[in-house]
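Reminder to self: tokens first, then the designed residues, so the page reads top to bottom the way the pipeline ran.
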């Protein structure tokens, strides 16, 4: 073997990028443009009197998830709020949430005057740890919001069992989990209600938007009413029965979602195949551990591909420096959330404004070590659109990481 004579240069220092592909998102073509243009041309843009495309998409998405009902709304935060309100939580009730998630999972609990109770995640999956849930239940606990983080299913058998024994509602936050499955069932369809976001970064998007799916007719009717200013089907326009708001989406969003939904299954299969393949490749690299669950029971949709980074195997290179180098090599990636949610000023300072949260609640003493570690030093996220690349792209991602490792440990 000839000895390597050239010195490798990282892209961040002006060398050639390892990954040459680019990863567009959103993905659309002329048919999407046409579909939206037709709705615009029809002049029927919104409001419940001309919401055929909205109703059609709700039927399609419910059918895709295997639920009886679906209610669209303006975003995936409002969808959580609708589900919480319809579930009948009362001021001061406790709702169990993970601290390693987007703020909406917990802030919507505040918005219904309830108390978010933070329960730590399982280090193997970054999802709520069922044992820790059980330990956090009090006589005020009313609901659990499991987040299928990154698109990896929570242990729903364990969570539903806890909920049944303690008479709790389960609202799945499936904002990362369109098309993902647990034991053959779509995520979002297992709890009392499942909430999804269609914000720009999500695996199914119309720029903004949200939806709640459920099999519970009472919940459905209440959520549909709350979304539509408290109106009820079969009554007059100016009759308001419930304390809702106007959270409706437009016909343009709905028709775009119907278009995009046709691509979701193929995209989910592709991300799933790429994710499994990438895990094989990265498992062979010293200092990296891909997150994984019981893969034979689930279908991961890789809204995020997450691995744990150990700086010791990279010559002490900090995670921040590693991610900057990886991004420069052409891998769309990030270090993710900087803090567990309870560390955010809104919780630390209890800036709760008009919300009726009991004085005894104190977030300065909350400490969830697994979430802390994930935020501080461990987690690396690769974004979902990169998981729509080819097998060659996955090999290039692994090669980019090996290149960084070679340069920082031998350089
Ligand atoms: C994106 C997201 C939401 C909220 O969705 P929006 O449409 O942005 O309001 C809720 N939960 C999680 C975990 C999310 O990632």
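Designed residues (411 positions):
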């Amino acid at each position: 073997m000839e000895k390597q004579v050239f010195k490798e240069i990282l892209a961040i220092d002006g060398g050639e990028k390892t990954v040459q592909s680019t990863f567009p998102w959103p993905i659309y073509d002329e048919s999407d443009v046409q579909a939206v243009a037709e709705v615009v041309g029809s002049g029927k843009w919104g409001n419940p009197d001309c919401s055929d495309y909205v109703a059609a998409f709700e039927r399609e998405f419910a059918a895709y998830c295997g639920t009886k009902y679906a209610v669209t709304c303006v975003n995936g935060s409002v969808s959580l709020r609708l589900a919480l309100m319809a579930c009948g939580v009362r001021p001061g009730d406790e709702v169990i949430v993970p601290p390693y998630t987007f703020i909406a999972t917990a802030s919507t609990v505040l918005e219904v005057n309830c108390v978010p109770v933070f329960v730590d995640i399982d280090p193997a999956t970054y999802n709520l740890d069922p044992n820790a849930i059980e330990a956090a239940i009090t006589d005020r606990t009313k609901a659990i919001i499991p987040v299928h983080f990154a698109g990896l299913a929570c242990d729903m058998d364990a969570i539903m069992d806890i909920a049944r024994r303690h008479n709790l509602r389960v609202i799945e936050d499936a904002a990362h989990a369109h098309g993902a499955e647990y034991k053959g069932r779509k995520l979002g369809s297992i709890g009392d209600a499942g909430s999804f976001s269609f914000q720009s970064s999500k695996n199914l998007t119309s720029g903004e938007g949200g939806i709640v799916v459920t099999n519970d007719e009472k919940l459905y009717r209440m959520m549909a009413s709350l979304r539509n200013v408290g109106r009820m089907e079969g009554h007059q326009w100016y009759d308001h029965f419930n304390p809702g708001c106007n959270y409706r989406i437009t016909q343009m969003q709905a028709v775009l979602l119907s278009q995009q939904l046709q691509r979701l299954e193929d995209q989910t299969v592709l991300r799933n195949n790429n994710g499994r393949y990438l895990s094989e490749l990265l498992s062979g690299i010293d200092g990296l551990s891909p997150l994984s669950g019981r893969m034979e029971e689930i279908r991961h949709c890789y809204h995020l591909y997450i691995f744990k980074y150990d700086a010791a195997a990279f010559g002490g290179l900090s995670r921040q420096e590693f991610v900057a180098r990886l991004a420069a090599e052409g891998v769309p990636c990030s270090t993710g959330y900087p803090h567990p949610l309870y560390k955010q000023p809104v919780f630390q300072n209890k800036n709760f404004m008009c919300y009726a949260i009991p004085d005894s609640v104190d977030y300065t003493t909350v400490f969830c070590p697994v979430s802390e570690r994930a935020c501080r030093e461990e987690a690396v996220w690769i974004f979902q659109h990169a998981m729509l690349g080819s097998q060659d792209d996955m090999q290039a991602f692994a090669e980019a990481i090996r290149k960084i490792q070679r340069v920082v440990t031998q350089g």
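Residues 28 and 260 are 8 Å apart (CA to CA).
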